[in-house]
């Protein structure tokens, strides 16, 4: 078995080991906007649920040479964003928004995705997403150092939008119909594949 002391590895080496080990990871497609209303859209695979009462999610955005992601700057400024669950129908369009383009440009113009107004927050969502979560910022927690660390963003979900094709009464999601896509390492992605059931112990 290989052993690696994390403190002796570079940022890229640690990232490769983490992103290849912690799999599969759900992909949050996040829309945000700055104080002037300029829209930004970007995917993040450091993403998950962190609380249910109130409902809260987290995503982590990296810093490179001290430069923060536009998404993080926008969320800090407006305290609002929308998270979409990436699925088999949207993943290729979403991937087009991952390029590191100028802050003044709208990534959605590279796609065929269309915007739709949100109900609670000011940031629009994406119409084609089967699930979208309107979020208000709870807190941003800086991780690591200012140059190469990350911003851990925790948001409270204030409105769920669930497409009829994936909703099951009462308040359940049809995972097969959703067709969520996950991130592996590098350029590799995966769908849900075969599922199985293991009963949870009751005592």
Automatic annotation (TrEMBL):
Q: Which residues form the Flavin reductase like domain?
A: 20-169
What keywords are annotated for this sequence in UniProt? Flavoprotein, FMN
Q: Which PANTHER family match?
A: FLAVIN REDUCTASE LIKE DOMAIN-CONTAINING PROTEIN (PTHR33798:SF5), FLAVOPROTEIN OXYGENASE (PTHR33798)
The record ties this protein, via InterPro entries, to: Flavin_Rdtase-like_dom (IPR002563), Split_barrel_FMN-bd (IPR012349)
Q: What family is reported?
A: Belongs to the flavoredoxin family.
Task: Name its species.
Answer: Staphylococcus gallinarum
- Domain of life, source organism: Bacteria
Named cofactor requirement(s): FMN
Record keywords: Flavoprotein included? yes
Know the name of this protein? Flavin reductase like domain-containing protein
